[in-house]
From TrEMBL:
The keyword S-adenosyl-L-methionine applies. It holds the Pfam family Methyltransf_10. It catalyses: adenosine(1618) in 23S rRNA + S-adenosyl-L-methionine = N(6)-methyladenosine(1618) in 23S rRNA + S-adenosyl-L-homocysteine + H(+). Its EC number is 2.1.1.181. It comes from Mucilaginibacter lutimaris. Belongs to the methyltransferase superfamily. METTL16/RlmF family. SUPFAM superfamilies: S-adenosyl-L-methionine-dependent methyltransferases. One of its GO terms (molecular function) is 23S rRNA (adenine(1618)-N(6))-methyltransferase activity. This is Ribosomal RNA large subunit methyltransferase F. Specifically methylates the adenine in position 1618 of 23S rRNA.
Length: 303
């Protein structure tokens, strides 16, 4: 049976110790970095400078400022309607898999372009490769099945002169995960993924409507962080997607030292553990992480 190690006692309520975003946003500094952010900033009820986080345009400009201030990314944009990810949570995933990679490396985080990571479904935003490379100098392959997202990710990489360390590849079918992306004989240190966790577009709309209602606002199914169908939902939801990923990971067991994925719903874990036992995973870790009130987990395994 696979060893299931939970690396946290209870659910975390703070970001990773190395995460540069553990403190409140310093909007004064961010505005100096990206002056256009000033037009979206205002004093809130606590007399602090902030933005309207329900405004997708404001969230995107905040991301541009954060990526420029902390990661030296001078050119970042996404097409309208695509997922605009919260940077602190994305950085957390990178830092936790860095901790995992210390195993077999004398407890030291491996740094440098010889460390190779595969980001499944990198999206139009390409955020994981950007943060991972700028933080630890790793090289990345990002896969993407959506043509518009693929073009956007490639443009971000090219505009920031990172084509030598970040390779964006077309996944030819939404049905596959590793198959068609990993080349024969290619080796990775880690694979990562932020999977779609809803089971249908209806579920996405219902959850969004409920969120706005809880916030006392009437915005229907509007998404402040955006997101296209393939970014937000997968037939069968997160459990089916993870089962597919685990099945394929067994087929590519020799291609990566570790495999990993975000898990949004705690109820998904039991099915994953059963699949990993079935495929005789040698080591399984569950890392809890959170940003504010949002709690998620990283499932990590190897064969």
């Amino acid at each position: 049976m696979a060893k299931k190690q939970n690396t946290a006692s209870g659910e975390k309520i703070i970001l990773h110790p190395r995460n540069a975003h553990r403190n409140r946003y310093d909007f004064a500094t961010l505005i100096k970095t990206l002056p256009v952010l000033r037009s979206f900033a205002a004093q809130n009820e606590f007399n602090d400078l902030s933005i309207d986080f329900t405004n997708p345009d404001a969230v995107k400009v905040l991301n541009q400022a954060l990526l420029k201030q902390y990661y030296g990314i001078n050119h970042w944009d996404i097409p309208q309607g695509f997922l605009c990810p919260p940077i602190p949570g994305r950085a957390d995933y990178i830092h936790y898999i860095a901790d995992v990679l210390t195993e077999g490396n004398n407890g030291i985080i491996p740094i440098g372009s010889n460390v190779k990571v595969l980001d499944i479904g990198t999206g139009a935003n390409c955020v994981y490769p950007l943060i991972g490379h700028k933080t630890y100098d790793w090289s990345f392959v990002g896969s993407e099945a959506d043509y518009i997202a693929l073009a956007s990710a490639k443009k971000i990489v090219e505009d920031n002169s990172l084509t030598n360390v970040i390779d964006i590849r077309k996944q030819t079918t939404f049905a596959n995960i590793f198959d068609g992306v990993i080349k024969p004989g290619e080796k990775f240190d880690m694979t990562m993924c932020n999977p779609p966790f809803h089971s249908s577009s209806k579920e996405v709309k219902e959850k969004s409507t409920r969120k706005w209602k809880n916030l006392g606002q009437d915005k229907g199914a509007e998404l402040n962080f955006g997101g296209r169908n393939n970014e937000l939902w997968y037939e069968g939801g997160e459990p089916r997607f993870l089962n597919k990923m685990i099945t394929e990971s067994k087929q590519f067991a020799g291609s990566s030292k570790w495999f990993s994925s975000l898990i949004s719903k705690k109820t998904t874990l039991d099915g994953c553990y059963k699949s990993l036992d079935y495929y005789k995973a040698a080591d399984v870790k569950t890392i809890s992480m959170s940003q504010g009130q949002k709690v998620s987990r990283i499932l990590v395994w190897r064969f």
